[in-house]
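Why does residue order matter? Because the sequence determines the fold. Keep that principle in mind as you read this record.
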Amino acid sequence: MARIPAVLFPTMYIKKQRLLTPGPTPLLPAALHAMMGSDIHHRTEDFRKLYKQILSDLKEVLNTSSDVLVLVASGSGGLEAATQNFFTSGDEVLVCSAGKFGERWVEIMKAWGMRATVLSAPYGEAVQPEAVEKALHENKNIKGVFVQASETSTGTEHDVKRMGEAVKKTGAIFVVDAITGIGTMPLDIDRWGLDVVVGGSQKAFMIPPGLAFVTISPKAWQLAESSKAPRFYFDLKKERKNALNGESAWTPNTALLLAFAEALKYIKNIGMDKLVANAQLLAQATREAMQALGLELFSSAPASSVTAVRPPAGMDSGVIIKEFRSHFNAIITNGQGSMKGQIFRLAHLGYFDFHDLFAIVAELEIILNANGCAVPYGKGVAAVQNAYAAVALPKPEPVAVS
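Structure:
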C-alpha cells in the first residue's frame, strides 16, 4: 500500500477537543443531559424536593455535620461570602499565601477592610503549620485563618489538618478554600476543625462553572453573630433559613442544580474516597512520567489536583500550551502571573481518567521532540503504564517448578 506523503497529510483532520485544565473540568455526561430538564419553577414542590436532596447528598459526600449552603456564583463568590458573613471591618485575620489564589485571599481581605497578617511562602512551596501556630500564639486577637487547601496556580498542597489542629485551640475560625482540594485530597471537615470550607461546581464535581457551596460549623455561626459587615445577596443566614424549606434565597441556577444532583449521585456511587484516590493516582503517575522525561516538578509539596512542571531549559511553557492546542486540540494551562512561561500545569480532577493521561503524556513526548528536546518515545507513557499496573492489575501467581 502506497504511503500518503506527509505534505498531503500535515495534521489530523478530526480532532476532539479535550479540556485538561484544573477548572473548568470535563463534564459528566449524565450531568450534561440533566441540564436539559431545567424548566422547573424554583418555588414549587418539584424544586424543593430537588434542592433538599442536593443539600443532603452534598453533606454526605463531604462527610460533615456542618450546615452546607449552595450559592449561585463562582468559587470566588463563595470566598467573599466566607469573609463578609463572619467578620467586621478592622478584624485581625491571618492569611496564608503561596500563590495567585493565596494572593486572592489577601485582596479580599483588603476589599473588606480586614487587618491581615500575611504568611507568605515562595511560589512552589507551602506555608508551614508551625508558622500558623506561631502567629496565633503571638496574636490572640486573630479571628480567622485563611488558606488554600490546594494552591492550583503552583500545584502545591497545604497541610490543612495540622493547621486546623492549631486553629482549634483558639477562638479563631479556620476558613479553607477547598475549591480544587475537594475530591483530590482527604478533608475531614469536622475532625480537623475546618470551620468554613468553600467549594465550586466546575472542579471535582464535573459540571459547568456557576455554583459555589460553603460548609459552616457551629463555631463559625457563633462568630457570625458579632459580624457587622454589610451584606445583601451573599447573606448566609438568609440562605440557611430558606434552605430549611428547600428553597434558595434568590433565583437559583436550576440547570446547574440538576447537573449537580447527577454529579452527587455519581460521586456517592463510587465513593468520595475513590474520587480522591483517582486524583492521587493520576497525580503520582504524572509526576513519575515527567521525571522519566527529565522534566522538573515545580512544587516541593505537590498537590493531587494539578501537577506543575517546568519546561525544558530555554523553552517558554507557552510553546507547549500552544502545541497541545494546535496539534491535538487539548487545552492545558500555563503558569499564572509571574509564573507565565515558566511552568505548564496538567490537571487530575473531575471527569478525568488514565485514558486521558496516557494520551496527554504521549502527546507531550511528540511536542518535546518537535521543539528540540529529544526524549525517547514511550518513556513517559511507560511510567504511566507502570503506575497503573502496580495498583490495577492482579499480581501473577508464581509458577511452580516441578
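DSSP finds 13 helices and 14 strands in the chain.
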